[in-house]
Amino acid sequence: MSSLTPWQALPHAGAVDAETAARPETGGWRTGLKPQVDLSCCVNCLLCWIYCPDSAVKLDGTTFDGFDLAHCKGCEICAEICPVDAIAMVPEERTP
Amino acid sequence: MSRLKTLARREAGLPPLAGGHSLCQGCGIPAVVRTVLGSFDRPVVVVNATGCLEVATTRFPTTAWNVPWVHVAFENAAAVASGVEAAKRALRRRNGLPDDQEPAVVVFAGDGGTYDIGLQALSGALERGHRFLFVCYDNEAYMNTGIQRSGATPFGASTTTSPSGLESLGKAQQRKDMTAIAIAHHVPYVGQAAGSHWQDLSEKVERAAAADGPAFLNVLTNCPLGWGHEPRIGIHVLDAAVESCFWPLYEVVDGRFRLTYEPEEMLPIEEWLRPQARFAHLLRPENADLVAEIQRRVGADWDDLRSRCEEGVPA
Amino acid sequence: MSTSELQLLTGGEAVAEAMRQIDPDVVPVYPITPQTPIIQTFAKFVADGAAHGELVDVESEHSAMSAAIGSALAGARTMTATSSQGLALMAEVVYIAAAMRAPIVMALGNRALSGPINIHCDHSDSMLIRDSGVVQLFAENAQEAYDLTVLGTRLAERLDVMLPVLVCQDGFTITHSAEPVALLPDQAVRDFVGDYAIPHPLLESAHPTTQGPFAMPDYYFELRRQQIAALEAALDALPELALEYAQLSGRAYGPLEPYRLDDAERVLVALGSAAGTIKDVVDELRDEGEHVGLLKIVSFRPFPAGAVVELLRGVPSVIVLDRAASPGGAAPLRAELASALSGEPAHVGGHVYGLGGRDLHPEDVRDVFAERAGDYVGLRSEPCLA
Questions:
Q1: Where are the alpha helices (H) located in C273-374, listed in sequence order?
Q2: Domain count along chain B
Q3: pTM for the whole thing?
Q4: N or C: which end of chain B has fewer CB within 10 A?
């Protein structure tokens, strides 16, 4: 989050420019588990990509390219929905 | 290329709705939004009613949106969209721009902002024939303000303003059939879809986008907190709504009804009720007759819908 | 200076002519007495091809203002009209229009707020949205309603202003009364208002913006202060634009109009058509040797407090006539005058008049100047001992 600005520095009408806006990170919402994929099983069906509420499945073109852990909230939908069980939720070390 | 890959290519790493918002873990709304917007092959302008989606994605000075987006108030998204659409027409006439280069107008509103407080503005916009798509993400209650009942809340659901208790069995009224209300406006396209069935939704969006006039989509969307289920199983819960025929998937194109999905076997209604804590009180043995009544009604509505679809009954 | 043609027009028709000449892109409309002649006259212009915008017959005033915001922020010049209950219904959205800096120009046919329901003139509807952040200009007659609509469009669209502008005219008294009105040539109006341009049109996809955000306590205050600055800028802009308009039309406007204030001992302050009646009485009393005058307020918001102090400095008695009450407190215009003149030696008094269309007669104005009038001018009340 940007530092708080004085009123004179605010954008006109509070209109936020999508290209330059601050984007919060929500990876801190996870409570000890993160998604992990077994690439040897992944079939690039992209179901995890479309169902992820946080747009946290990264793609290279149309190929699975990892999870955006800065935004993943750990909801586990990807692990649940993967048709080949390529995704598991695994413990992660978190710095407090 | 598969449809999902087409959607992925369109997103090209810049999703219309990106991460960084404060929607709940496992919220069903973003999948609906991204499926809808990804199914357009041209730019969009999003008009968003007050509610979970709007509040959680646009806390000043941040935003989770990468498309032009506007929010004005709770009940007027369809009216705001009418103004944007009228501006398009006026400017096109003035400047001579072809329509297919201009952004499509897409409204997102929750069931509160559609069935209840938003009904008037929606009705007016449908009657006037504006060319826009109105998508209701229907999670069957006012979720953003704390799970209060709306006109979309199903019979028997426990909400914070229709709680089950010692002397109450949850909401005492049947929900409105908002899809039927939209159909009654005789607009070119009306569809009923679910967040779990992304492909059905995407195909419907394409047909809606091609309509030369108003299009309305009622999309069942899960809410882990409000419905009382683990975030992880959201898609399965929505699936049960479709497979039990509680929430049929169909569309009405220029007045002709068409089922877009028919379950091989109608799942018993308990399969829809059981995973959700908001229905837990209904599953107590002493309330079996209520569940039977719900089952009967779902069955009757399904038979009625099927007969309309078979005959292609004009709306 | 452009030559003006004189036509016999009601205030409503005069505003509709201004709208035809401005030729906005989008006009969402919903009917309510007494503004309806404005939208009907304009609708006929559109039907005959004399105006070319999209007329959107919405299903309520709340939707009229909502559609107007959508249109204005999409990138289209937008106008509408309302009165009384219509303004009350759209009040929520009027505040938002100001906050979102939508330069919508709206004709207001001032009409009393219910209840009881009453279709005649008073200023309670304007006062309902007094604090909304919109500009409110008051016309004394049909000519002013016409001129302020053209002028108001330029004011609304200045980059440092970018606010909704309400051009207020007394319901029935002005909206439905015909007077000679000098219209500018069509092209002169087009040239004066120029092209519409806003910072972030929604229809421009190349640089998307998020508009109408959710703000927590860490930002709401600053966003509101920015909006207040726009209204302050409008006060500075108005004289400059009015000068340009005067060169075009020969008619001078400003945030207020002083009338025979030189050596005045008693000055009435008023908004709207009553100013016309008061001017006549001032002329009669002056002929009788009385030192009286009128300060007509044109821009109620932003309120020209500085100019008021300059003009009324040295006037012993200032009497404000309010065509709206604020039950339980000071009437709105009186409160503004008292605030502006606090610290000045002038005594500020006031009366409420004209609620629900009760006419203000010249005899009433004489009574006010002679300090014979009660708190509520023209009210039937049982005689009392005081």
A1: 274-287, 305-312, 332-340, 362-369
A2: 1
A3: 0.97
A4: N
